[in-house]
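Lab notebook: predicted structure, single chain.

Context: the supervisor wants predicted structures on file for every construct in the current expression panel, including those that have not yet been purified. This is the next one on the list. No modifications to the sequence; it matches the entry in the shared construct table.
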Amino acid sequence: MSDRPISFGARLMVAAAASSVNAVLYLVPNHVQLKAPALLPWTPVDAAVPFVPLTLWIYFSDYLLVASAFLLVRTWGEATRFARAYFALLVVGSAVHLAWPTVFPRESFPLSGDGLTVRAFALLRQVDLPTSCLPSMHVAGSYLAAFSLWRRSRATFTVWTSWATAVAVSTLTAKQHYAVDVVAGLMMAAVFWALFFARPGREPQRSGLAAASSRRWSSSSSSQ
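Prediction complete. Output recorded below exactly as produced.
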């Protein structure tokens, strides 16, 4: 089963299911707190990063980043590992948000006008309350998805990691998160990558052609 190729349709279905789970696990602690949310200390980094409303669209691209990384899986084994890693990340992050809610002072960054970006911000601030800050699940999910591609080509890994970095920066410039939230999200991604993707014995099996070539080389070497 693990080496069976997975169809594009099946990947789409699993990605849709993961997105639904993501919404539930994020929005429940976002709207239900076990205690009053706490403000975090404002660091020099937070003060230095400007508010750039247009970067909200980069922030939104997190969902496309994760989905596109998942669509690059080739087998059911890879899909299962990705889904398990992402689900575990969501569960731990949501548990932290529920047990220790933190709040970001969005009111310090008002918007004016009636453009598309302003309306998108208004909708975001209605649906997504500023009470799920530490860790940033945008950052954690984006980097985990990028790190999952570490065995792909260097170009693929570089593109998705750069994209995840742009998302991480946008959480600051869109004033959705503190700098410490970004660091915590990156650390979470690294931990779950190590648990699910980098442990010994998790290397993907070689293709039949590569294995056959290896056997021929071994036979040739032993006969010499």
